[in-house]
Each structure stands twice: as structure tokens, then as C-alpha cells.
Amino acid sequence: MELGLLAIGAGLAVGLAGLATGYAQAKIGSAGAGVIAEKPELTGTVILLVAIPETVLILGFAVAAMIILLLE
Predict the structure, then answer these.
(1) CA atoms of 47 and 37, how far apart (whole Å)
(2) Is the model's pTM score more than 0.90?
(3) What is the CA radius of gyration of the chain?
(4) Residues contacting residue 71 through CB under 8 Å, at least 6 positions apart
(5) Residues 22-47, buried b or exposed e (16+ Cβ, 10 A)?
(6) Were both Cys, which of 37, 46, 67, 71 would link to 10 (CB 3.0–4.6 Å)?
């Protein structure tokens, strides 16, 4: 039972982080496309802002890895 719950927890850590990252990047990306259309010199800033939510997914993966290490 405990093994299954740890596996579900690891899956939720990555899955929910992925959903949150996708939602945030969709909102930032659509706004960023409008900004780039009006001011092309801000392309680098928009790329940076789209990349920031990826840290949430990386942290979710790190948490899942720590949970999986508890399985051993």
C-alpha cells in the first residue's frame, strides 16, 4: 500500500507541475506574441519570461525523484 501511494505522489508531483507550467506558458506566450508584434526588440525578454515557469516543472521532477528514492 505504501509503495503505491509513494508512486502516486511522485506522479502527481510531475503531472501537476507540468499542468501548471503549461498553463502559465500559454498565458505568457500569448501575451508575449502581442508584445513582439509591437516591439520586436523585446524578444529576449519574452523568451526569458516564457522560460521562467519551467523551473516549476524542474522542481516537480526533483521532488518526484526524491520520493522515488524513498522507495528503495
Answers:
(1) 14
(2) no
(3) 17
(4) 3, 6, 7
(5) eebbeebeeebeeeeeeeeeeeeebe
(6) 67
Contact between 45 and 31 under an 8 Å Cβ cutoff? The reply is no
Please give the domain boundaries of the chain with CATH numbers for all domains.
Answer: 2-67 (1.20.20.10)
**Longest Cα pair distance anywhere in the chain, in angstroms?**
56
SS3 64: helix
pLDDT in tens, the chain (72 residues): 788 888 899 999 999 999 999 999 999 999 999 999 999 999 999 999 999 999 999 999 999 999 889 876
Residue 71: per-residue pLDDT = 74
